[in-house]
Design a protein that fits this description.
- It is a single chain.
- The chain has helices spanning 41-48, 70-76, 92-102, 107-120, 136-148, 166-176, 179-182, 217-222, 236-247, 265-276, 290-298, 311-323, and strands at residues 3-12, 15-25, 30-34, 56-61, 64-65, 77-80, 154-158, 186-191, 202-207, 210-215, 227-233, 251-254, 257-262, 280-286.
- By secondary structure, the protein is an alpha/beta fold.
- It folds into two domains: 3-216, Rossmann fold (3-Layer(aba) Sandwich); 223-323, Alpha-Beta Plaits.
- A six-stranded mixed sheet has the order 6-7-8-3-9-10, sandwiched between helices. A four-stranded antiparallel sheet has the order 2-1-4-5, covered by helices on one side.
- Helix 3 (92-102) packs across helix 4 and helix 5 packs parallel to helix 6.
- The chain binds adenosine-5'-diphosphate and magnesium ion.
- The site of magnesium ion has 4 residues, from helix 1.
Length: 324
């Protein structure tokens, strides 16, 4: 295990940002640390990167205790944090060479290594342009290249796609998923975009400083226990009551949609239509997503903006939570 965390706690005065978490990460895998804003992701990553001391508990990277051997840990890791620290008045190439010196990459290797990581992130052709001319996506890719320059065992990515447009996000993922195999590195990433975590080998879901579930994306989706069927009806209040009474299904509401989990969506839908008749306006069936898992475990969606502004939907989410 290249990362080991045992009973980690971090308190800031009376806020407990990280509340007794434990997990392990296997070498050359992608590990996703998933949770809403304020869950404790950056705090955890900062402890692992030796930028912050925990209140209690232990963390090890590549066998080194993060508190006792911070310089060994730092040699073993690359970091891409939320705030960019690139020098915008240097070229991409110069940024990487500078960083290679900082990290004691042997002088005779620097040119090769810099060119190789530039190639890997698809910036070789643009390496002599000033970074201030780069797009947001290019800057982020250069930061990933920089994080890899000294051949770290683990690369930490804190919300790597935050602030990028959808195309740059997709583009970034395309090469992040190649990293374990092609650069022989383990990825530890945080995100609050549930759909991005699909590429992870293993995920830990964190909420309020606690890990509330962990496993592969498929294992986590099994928590849902079936397909999610959502319907729009002419009268959601009445329909909801009928479904709960007649089909004995638990119903939640998001926006103007009612949704429920059925073992088999394809047999559930005809039953729904038989019970509700012409009240049904539309029906949708979905394989569970990681967001559904989070909703099931916490009674809320991971991103507040996913919730409709309407009071009725907020009320229904609260009801859903009380029932669990
Ligand atoms: N330096 C700090 N001082 C006080 N509270 C902090 C500090 N850093 C983070 N927090 C609090 O700790 C909690 C976790 O924050 P953070 O680790 O940044 O979460 P995330 O990265 O998941 O959004 C939040 O409630 C945040 O307000
Ligand atoms: Mg954060």
């Amino acid at each position: 295990m290249v990362i080991k965390v045992q009973n980690l706690v971090k308190r800031y005065n009376h806020i407990t940002a990280v509340n007794d978490i434990s997990f392990q990460v296997e070498e050359s895998t992608i590990f996703g640390f998933l949770g809403p804003n304020g869950a404790g992701k950056t705090t955890t990553i900062s402890i692992l990167c030796t930028l912050l001391s925990p209140t209690s508990g232990n963390a090890y990277i590549a066998g080194y205790d993060c508190m006792k051997y911070p310089s060994e840990v730092r040699k073993s890791i690359g970091i891409v944090f939320q705030d960019s620290t690139l020098d915008k008045d240097l070229t991409g190439y110069e940024n990487l060479v500078f960083h290679a010196y900082l990290y004691n990459v042997p002088k005779s290797n620097i040119k090769n290594r810099v060119n190789s990581v530039l190639n890997f992130v698809g910036l070789y052709e643009r390496k002599d342009e000033l970074v201030k001319k780069y797009s947001g996506g290019m800057k982020r890719r250069l930061e990933v290249a920089r994080g890899l320059i000294h051949n770290p065992r683990v690369l930490f990515l804190d919300e790597p796609t935050l602030g990028l447009d959808p195309q740059s996000r997709a583009n970034l993922w395309e090469f992040i998923i190649k990293l374990p195999e092609e650069q022989n590195v383990t990825i530890f990433m945080t995100t609050h975009y549930m759909e991005e975590a699909e590429v992870c080998n293993k995920i830990a879901i964190i909420d309020n400083g606690k890990i509330i579930a962990s496993g592969s994306p498929d294992e986590l989706k099994k928590i849902i226990g079936g397909d999610v069927v959502s319907i729009i009806t002419k009268d959601n209040i009445l329909a909801r009551d009928q479904i709960e009474r007649l089909l004995k299904l638990q119903v939640s509401e998001k926006g103007n949609e009612l949704y429920m989990t059925c073992n088999q969506g394809e047999t559930c839908i005809p039953e729904l239509i038989r019970s509700l008749g012409d009240k049904v306006l539309s029906v949708k069936i979905q394989r569970p997503t990681l967001n559904d898992v989070f909703l099931k475990l916490t009674g809320k969606t991971i991103r507040e903006e996913d919730l409709s502004e309407s009071n009725s939907s907020k009320e229904s989410v609260r009801v859903y939570k009380r029932r669990h």
